[in-house]
Amino acid sequence: MISINKIHHLAIICSDYAVSKKFYTEVLNLQIIKETYRTERGSYKLDLALNGNYVLELFSFPNPPKRPSRPESCGLRHLAFEVDHLDSTIQELLIENVICEPVRVDEITGKRFTFTADPDQTPIEFYEK
User: Fold this and answer.
1) Which of 25, 57, 89, 113 would bridge with 127, disulfide CB 3.0–4.6 Å?
2) pTM, whole model, 2 decimals?
3) Architecture of domain 1-63 in CATH?
4) Which of 95, 104, 97, 100 is nearest to 116 (CA)?
5) What angle do CA 98, 78, 112 make, to 5 degrees?
């Protein structure tokens, strides 16, 4: 039987590298581990960390296809981040002109959460601890 320890990272392909880099590093405050330009592919790869843990690879490729729909499309449904205080997180996002959906309550856990999206409309959830 396979023994999996944890999720190592997620990978996201963006349409505008500069815009997405700013969103993930300046709005969400993920830390840059390494930024690599891959000449043969005409693309960037940005390795990002959260609280010192490697969590996300941000890729740029020439002319990537659009995402078919919001969270109900096949494949990765959304990226979720745990936060201590949902209301203050929403206020910080609003300061950056990032709009969130109305707050919902998880019917199983009773915890509050909201959704927004990155610049390419990849759904991002903020889930209150």
Assistant:
1) 113
2) 0.80
3) Roll (3.10)
4) 100
5) 70
